[in-house]
């Protein structure tokens, strides 16, 4: 643990971090009228930020640096912009959290203090993000020690240990707990200092199921020699010829003992560290990177898409926010929606019309898109403009689009020719499409009538308008002309590749059932956009899988609403560097395809697979009920989403009172008829015989991204953020079904 402590000491010697540890009075700002002073300080662990009202009693709040994604400097939030005249930019900063958690806007008392917090937090975030597996493990040990040491004397007595076990989701009888405590209490003082606690933690987290796998391949039971590790990688992890080279790399990367490294061997500690790393995870490392062909037409890709992007909550009274666009783009969204209406002062506004949702300026949204569109992905952004403005303010919209986005907005054909197929995503541009855009069908009517998508293009959304359309605005739509859908036969005979239609979820679902193969062929050449039913006023979502099964590209979801549907969306787009574009399977790109989701066995190259998942164990699952003494009864369910024949769910039994290291050793079996479209979702729940089970964690990934063998599944919260070190340990087998 020495390396971790050295890094802790060095970071705590940093002058900015020292100021944070000494503490500062900062104004926490929630609105123009809510600006309250709070005392903030960094705790001794170098990770926890503590704050409380200067006037309150004992009440305080904390959050971890690991929950933070970034620090924004100056007036970079709507709240801080609203008080810009009162507090200058050099006093202001915003703490940005992972996932859907709201940001924290702060105002310091001096520019120097603001800079100390801005730079200090950035250093701490960088340190947390660059820790290796060993340092991360040491950090968890330190976290538990801090939580257990209630009286803050740097030691942990047995009473504190008993409380710690409950906090860790462990139900252990007092006799066994005392036995572990005594084993760790080398100094025989009746309390554990930090190094003794490290030993206690190691005993507690000993993984018998990992040890058994290790023993199967270790000749002497103490270490895996290079050849033994190669055998494990080749036989169990199914790595084939690369096993020899990979074995050397793994020893170099994960083995903590220099002695073992010199022998080209791996100890049990190194073996467990490898299995718990990203390389040992269920997700193929090579599929995390940009690995797909990105030179095909836009219609050949699934595109991560958001509905009513401006909303943070429900569709009737929800808050409209620039932050909603930033969060969607951070999640890899590549098609965002803007509902524009006439503003009172000549400036177009954006909100959900005829509702009580709040309003934001169109120009502020475009400025936000310009700044954040290409931070997560270099590929085109499609700007879906739902236009309700009169001609005059449409012209203002066009001016904002041109002036703010500049040459990143596609306003002319890429090669000057009428396109026979859509361009590829290999250009950094914004593409626009307008709902109900009434422009001539022939794109040659004006040089600027159609645009070719570069890597980052925002596609203006289809405009549902009945009034006249501003020529300035319509000229910005190049490759995504909105057109009413007249049926698949009409589209086959008359449609152009640059024409696209929008479908409600109910209409799209009906078409997938009545004419699935026709829908697939249509989607090989043209873009289709699916949007949620207007009855979903709570911002709930439909299941996107049915639409992906027929090749629909722009399947728009309410990104602000966590749950199964967004888990599936995050799961599909987790591959290919999270760039928001995923290449469709070849049978969804062939204009003459015979594929039908209802009859997968009818396609050429049909090859069903058997998926067998041995759910072995769980590690340090989070508590659901924070009441003292409450411990979870976990079960694991594996869910398959894909073509109708592949939809399936199987679950393990539940384990009573053990969220720390439950062991199931149960095998769940599935037949996958269309592997290329299947998503696999692992869900952990707290069993409750009297009511609905409580959600603990989940992880979703494409079937084609699964690594076979002994793998860890690193669980995510309901919000989609990491909850380390919570994980499942499984053994995955994939074979041909005969």
UniProtKB/TrEMBL annotation:
The keyword Lipid metabolism applies. This is Phosphoinositide phospholipase C. Its cofactor is Ca(2+). Residues 18-126 form the PH domain. Its EC number is 3.1.4.11. It catalyses: a 1,2-diacyl-sn-glycero-3-phospho-(1D-myo-inositol) + H2O = 1D-myo-inositol 1-phosphate + a 1,2-diacyl-sn-glycerol + H(+); a 1,2-diacyl-sn-glycero-3-phospho-(1D-myo-inositol-4,5-bisphosphate) + H2O = 1D-myo-inositol 1,4,5-trisphosphate + a 1,2-diacyl-sn-glycerol + H(+). Its main location: cytoplasm. It comes from Lates calcarifer. Keywords: Calcium, Cytoplasm, Endoplasmic reticulum, Hydrolase, Lipid degradation, Lipid metabolism, Membrane, Metal-binding, Nucleus, Repeat, Transducer. It is an enzyme of class 3 (hydrolase). One of its GO terms (biological process) is intracellular signal transduction. GO terms for cellular component: endoplasmic reticulum; nucleus; plasma membrane. Residues 589-717 form the C2 domain. It is found in: Cytoplasm; Endoplasmic reticulum; Membrane; Nucleus. Residues 473-589 form the PI-PLC Y-box domain. It is a peripheral membrane protein. GO terms for molecular function: calcium ion binding; phosphatidylinositol phospholipase C activity; phosphatidylinositol-4,5-bisphosphate phospholipase C activity. It comes from the Eukaryota. Residues 136-171, 172-207 form the EF-hand domain.
């Amino acid at each position: 643990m020495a390396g971790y402590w050295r890094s802790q000491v060095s970071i705590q010697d940093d002058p900015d971090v020292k100021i944070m540890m000494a503490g500062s009075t900062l104004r926490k700002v929630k609105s123009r009228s809510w600006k309250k002073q709070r005392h903030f300080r960094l705790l001794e662990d170098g990770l926890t930020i503590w704050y409380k009202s200067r006037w309150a009693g004992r009440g305080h709040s904390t959050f971890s640096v690991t929950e933070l994604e970034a620090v924004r400097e100056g007036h970079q939030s709507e709240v801080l912009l609203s008080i810009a005249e009162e507090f200058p930019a050099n006093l202001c900063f915003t703490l940005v959290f992972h996932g859907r958690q709201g940001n924290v806007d702060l105002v310091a008392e001096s520019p120097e203090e603001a800079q100390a917090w801005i730079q200090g937090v950035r250093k701490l975030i960088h340190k947390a993000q660059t820790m290796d597996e060993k340092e991360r493990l040491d950090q968890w040990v330190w976290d538990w020690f801090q939580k257990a040491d209630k009286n803050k004397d740097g030691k942990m007595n047995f009473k504190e240990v008993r409380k710690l076990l409950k906090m860790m989701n462990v139900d252990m009888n007092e006799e066994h707990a005392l036995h572990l405590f005594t084993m760790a209490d080398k100094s025989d003082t009746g309390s554990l200092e930090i190094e003794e606690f490290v030993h206690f933690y190691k005993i507690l987290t000993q993984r018998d199921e990992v040890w058994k796998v290790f023993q199967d391949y270790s000749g002497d039971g103490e270490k895996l020699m290079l050849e033994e590790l190669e055998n494990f990688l080749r036989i169990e992890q199914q790595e084939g010829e690369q096993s020899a080279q990979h074995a050397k790399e793994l020893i170099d990367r994960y083995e903590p003992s220099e002695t073992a490294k010199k022998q080209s061997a791996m100890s049990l500690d190194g073996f467990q560290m490898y299995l718990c790393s990203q390389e040992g995870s269920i997700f193929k490392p090579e599929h995390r990177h940009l690995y797909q062909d990105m030179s095909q037409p836009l219609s050949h890709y699934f595109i991560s898409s958001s509905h009513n992007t401006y909303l943070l909550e429900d569709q009737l009274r929800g808050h409209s926010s620039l932050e909603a666009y930033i969060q969607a783009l951070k999640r890899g969204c590549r098609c965002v929606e803007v509902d524009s209406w006439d503003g009172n002062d000549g400036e177009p506004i954006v909100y959900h019309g005829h509702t009580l949702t709040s309003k934001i300026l169109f120009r502020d949204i475009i400025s936000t898109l310009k700044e954040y569109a290409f931070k997560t992905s270099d590929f085109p952004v499609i700007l879906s403009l739902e236009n309700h403005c009169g001609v005059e303010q449409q012209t203002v919209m066009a001016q904002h689009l041109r002036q703010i986005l500049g040459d990143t907005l596609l306003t002319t054909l890429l090669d000057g020719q009428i396109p026979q197929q859509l361009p590829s995503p290999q250009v950094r541009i914004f593409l626009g499409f307008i709902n109900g855009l009434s422009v001539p069908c022939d794109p040659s009517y004006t040089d600027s009538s159609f645009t070719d998508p570069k890597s980052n293009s925002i596609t203006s959304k289809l405009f549902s308008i009945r009034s006249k359309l501003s020529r300035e605005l319509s000229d910005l739509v190049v490759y995504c002309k909105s057109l009413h859908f007249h049926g698949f036969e009409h589209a086959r005979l008359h449609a152009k590749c640059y024409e696209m239609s929008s479908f409600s979820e109910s209409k799209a679902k009906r078409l997938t059932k009545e004419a699935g193969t026709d829908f697939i062929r249509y989607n090989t050449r043209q873009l289709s956009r699916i949007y949620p039913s207007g009855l979903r006023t709570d911002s709930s979502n439909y299941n996107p899988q049915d639409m992906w099964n027929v090749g629909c590209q722009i399947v728009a979801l309410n990104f602000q609403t966590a749950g199964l549907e967004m888990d599936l969306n995050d799961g599909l787009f987790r591959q290919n560097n999270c760039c928001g574009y995923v290449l469709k399977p070849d049978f969804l790109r062939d204009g003459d395809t015979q594929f039908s989701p209802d009859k997968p066995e009818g396609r050429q190259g049909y090859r069903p697979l058997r998926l067998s998942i041995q759910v072995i164990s769980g590690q340090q699952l989070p508590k659901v009920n924070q009441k003292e003494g409450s411990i979870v009864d976990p079960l694991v369910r594996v869910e398959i989403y894909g073509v109708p024949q592949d939809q399936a769910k199987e679950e393990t039994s539940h384990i009573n009172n053990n969220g720390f290291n439950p062991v199931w050793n149960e095998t769940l079996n599935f037949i996958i008829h269309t592997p290329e479209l299947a998503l696999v979702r692992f869900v952990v729940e707290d069993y409750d015989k009297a009511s609905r089970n409580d959600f603990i964690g989940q992880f979703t990934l494409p079937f084609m991204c699964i690594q076979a063998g002994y793998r860890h599944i690193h669980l995510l919260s309901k919000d989609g953020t990491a909850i380390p070190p919570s994980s499942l340990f499984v053994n995955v087998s994939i074979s041909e079904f005969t």
